[in-house]
Amino acid sequence: MWVWVPEAAPPDPVALARFASAQRVTDAFVSVPWGGPSADTVASADALRAHGVRVAALGGVEDWTGVEAVAWMERAVAGWPFDGVHLDIEPWGRADWAGRERELLDALERTVHDVAARSSLPVEVDLAPWVADEHPAAFTRIARRANAVALMAYRDRAPDILRVSDAARRILSSSRIAYRVGVDTAPAADPRATFADDGSAVLERELARVAARLAADARFAGVAVHDAQHWMALPR
Which domain of life is it from (predicted)? Predict the structure, then answer.
């Protein structure tokens, strides 16, 4: 699961770790500020690790360059013994995305390459699966720069999750790249893009269906939930 640790309202480390254990979470992506792990980051990471959860340093801004991402990564991993690096850099969220798609995706590829080249830890990158539909070559190049990909297949029913991620999953499987299928629990303008209005029972049911459908794919590394704060708040 993604775990954001905002300075103004960090999660309760004990509650977070207990929830992760109850939900059988194996990996958590815990946000690290620009200046390196904060006391709140360390507290959350320590609590999760104590419950057997692997913890990756999570960071990213939509306009990060390779130099900026590498500088952040080096501070992050020097300040706490993380198990991996998780990049959430989404250039498609920029105001100048339209008309610069190829340039910005090429820049993302270089950034992932630079971080992976300077890190001794495995690097995972978030990618929107529609990028594989509209820019398959760029999607493939970016994915190949990382050790794994988290597909942000933000839909709230298994058939739709599988449908929107189909092209991306085929590319990743053929390229022998491990991937997770991610879903969202935060409120969204489109209720079909999140489980916020469905509750945890529906989330569990639909993710079980996704996992069963993909169990035979050797590259499938499980499901991931964005994010801890909203997942913990879901009603039954």
Answer: Bacteria
Q: 34 pLDDT band (50/70/90 cuts)?
A: very high
In 73-113, beta strands by DSSP E: 84-87
136-162 average pLDDT score: 98
What is the distance between the alpha carbons of residues 142 and 159, in angstroms, rounded to a whole number?
A: 26
Nearest partner of 84 among 49, 128, 38, 108, judged by Cα: 49
Tokens of 142: 């970016």
Strands (E), the chain: 2-3, 27-31, 54-59, 84-87, 123-127, 148-152, 178-184, 220-226
The candidate with the shortest Cα–Cα distance to 200, out of 155, 227, 233, 159, is: 233
Q: What are 153's two structure tokens?
A: 């297949």
Task: Please state the rounded mean pLDDT for residues 105-126.
Answer: 98
User: Which structure tokens are listed for 40?
Assistant: 């709140």
> Cα–Cα distance between 236 and 233 in angstroms, integer?
9
Provide the CA 31 distance to its chain's centre, in angstroms: 11
Domain ranges of the chain: 2-233
**Residue-averaged pLDDT of the chain:** 98
Q: Say what percent of the chain tops pLDDT 90.
A: 100
Query: Three-state DSSP class for 165?
Result: coil
Among candidates 126, 69, 62, which has minimal Cα distance to 91?
Answer: 62
Q: What is the mean pLDDT of residues 60-70?
A: 96
**Secondary structure (3-state) at 227:** coil
CATH class of the domain whose range is 2-233: alpha beta
